[in-house]
Amino acid sequence: MNENDKKEKKEVPMSLKGMFDVTDETYYAYQGLFEKAQEIAVYYGFKPIETPLLEREDVFVSAIGEGTDVVDKEIYTFRSKGGERLAIRPEYTASIMRAYLEHGMQTLPQPVMLYSYGPVFRHENPQKGRLRQFRQFNLEILGTTKSIADALIIRTLTTVLEEFGFKDLIVDINSMGDKETRPAFIKELVNYYKKHLDTLCKDCHERIKSNPLRLLDCKQLQCQPFKDNAPSSLSYLSNDARSHFKEVLQYLEEMGIAYRVNNSLVRGLDYYSRTVFEVIKTDIDENGKEREITITGGGRYDYLAKMMGSKKDVPAVGMSIGVDRIVAQPWYKKLAPRILKKPKIYFIQLGAEA
Description:
alpha+beta; about 20% strand; 11 helices; three-stranded antiparallel beta sheet; 11 strands
């Protein structure tokens, strides 16, 4: 083989790291999951919305916030041929709020209840259940401060998961307070963690300056011991925020949804306020010990609209399900899509003439 032949020889192209082709039975598993989730969402009064994969970069940066992993490390951004700074969708909530504001949905009867489904992209370190292109199913209720909206999101979510085959679910829930009381909580949190600077991980050294709430969300083993004695946001709630949280818990009790208050539960994005929650699946590991697996979560984001440039706040609450993680779980039922009809009779060709 001469040098020219070597130059012309190309390797067979492969899919990008953290992205994969969905084929055959896996494709139908995704389709069946979406159809079931959509059916339940429609039953509870949600309507569909589909937003573009591309948005102006500021849609996500202003909403998610500087100092978060999503903005600082994971978001895919580029400059268009026209010179605009664009981003590939790393999450849905900011896009949904942009659509709500752009299309004047605040003039519709409130609340506006929406569901969405599709791919999102983050430049993460690929691992089991965590990809660079992954799919989400989302629920949002916009335009109401009422605690029943928080409870309805959780009710719909747990119903969807139960239909997927998940049992023994419990909701971890907390309140992050409102803009009147959160500064005092954050100040106390920072003061507490400053006492342990020598033993905090590298990321938490940055978080204490840029995004203190995420100190409670750190997964590094060396930072875990400090969570138990950290200040609780519940101690800093205003009367209004405390009443709201109490009502959410009462609704969950009335609906028979198992929950527990988790003082260290926060959401890492800037726009969250008041109610935050995660859905936990209890399971037995290979050693016979009980373990907990976080399936999904969500929360209230009353101040997102103003962060994106709106003159008025738009109270809202929502959640997202990472579809790829669900499909990969052994408990997932692998729901068959309704439109898929398998043939009952086959004609088999025998020979060229046939």
